[in-house]
Amino acid sequence: MTAASERLFIGGEWVEPDGGHYEVIDPATEAVVGLAPEASRAQVHEAAAAAREAFGPWSRTAPRERAAILDRAAEVMQRDFAAHAELAQAESGATTRTARGMQVAVGVARFRRYAKGALEPVEQGLPPQINEAGQGGISPASKREGRGAVLGALAVRRPVGVVTCITSYNNPWANPAGKIAPALAMGNTVVVKPAPQDPLSVYRMAAALAEAGAPPGVVNVVSGASAEVGEAAVDSPDVDMVSFTGSTAVGQRIAEVCGRGTKRQLMELGGKGAAVVFDDADLDSAVAGIGTTYSFYSGQICTAPTRVIVQRGVYEALVERLTRYIGQLRVGDPRAQGTVVGPVISAAHRDRVEAYVELGRKEGARVVAGGARPSAPDRGFYVAPTLLTDCTPDMRVVREEIFGPVVVVLPFDEEDEGVALANDSDYGLIDYVWSGDTARAFRVAGQLRAGGVGVNTVGRNMEAPFGGFKRSGVGRDVGSYALHAYSEWQAIVWEG
Q1: What region holds the Aldehyde dehydrogenase domain (predicted)?
Q2: Which residue range forms the structural domain that includes residue 282?
């Protein structure tokens, strides 16, 4: 792929960046994919101002018109599907199957979903309230105290305003689409700050929206490798809400700024998902589910079941199956047929994951699979899928998010102990339970402090609310819950 310079997208115009450009690197080959623009602080604030100016007209646009634009954008994205998948793969290092099926295809599907979402009812009628005479109320019509009245009420969802969308690097299509599409469907305008590692796909999304007829300023994209760009996108006085996907540490800093400005927040942060495996579980099913940690985005996914908490009666059997599973995974060029595990996003992140594996060794964990850098390919940022056993709850590899193809295993004896180990975490995004006893599986699920629980599956229902407990986030999105997330309730009351 030939390197090309990109420009910022502000107020419907492609704008030269004040800070020049920086290289976007293919994690699989270390080749330059393209040159991403580096926005200045002033340009980020200019983008927010453009979104503010566009908000009034866009928020008053008929829902069917917003729906039509989102639908057309999906068609434009689908038209150029192959090129988009190629770019997404080059930026993120995803396997071909993932780039096509889980990145671009999901991005397109989300635009189509929220085209329909724009037409969902925003009004909710409430039962009338009868105020008896002499209750001390004031009738707006008569201004007389004590008059009886029947008050009607309507709850209406209104757009929040200007939304800053800060996206994650692990999926440059699905993650931005999951923010931009529902925000626009509800009548908000957006400033998108893509992850610095793979921002080029987001500019393609903006181009599709422009071609589909999105008015100038409704969508703005500003990128940069400097933290200053993200800071400006959060602290701009024109921004009403920040939607962020990324690490808990960065989310906490964003929340502090939002708190000072009383800005709405939607935070999808870190995860350290527990997979509680009981001795009556289908072990092959459990291994297949846990194994997605290794193969899906090379472990760079916050929903991964990275802590395996397994009942002692099947501990050795599960470890043996997981070890055998790892041995069947092909690590290498994500463009090659048969590759299951591609690279992680950067050299720095590869070094971070490897440092955690070495830390696990020092803490007393046993490396039963992986643990060494793959000998091939010669270039690229590859990490071997790694399994750590003999772990204890106090180990950092058990408590901290590694965000790579690394799984830790801990034993338990009784149900209560398994639940306690699962909940012994700062995180609470998605946990999992495997058991042949459905009643027990659902009982345990109800005790887990996580925003979602998979029972005998790692599958996701894309209409179910998504978000975390504890340090895994604030708020919920996906399905109609995303429309709610990008709206505020307004109460309209009248005397009838």
Answers
A1: 14-491
A2: 274-462
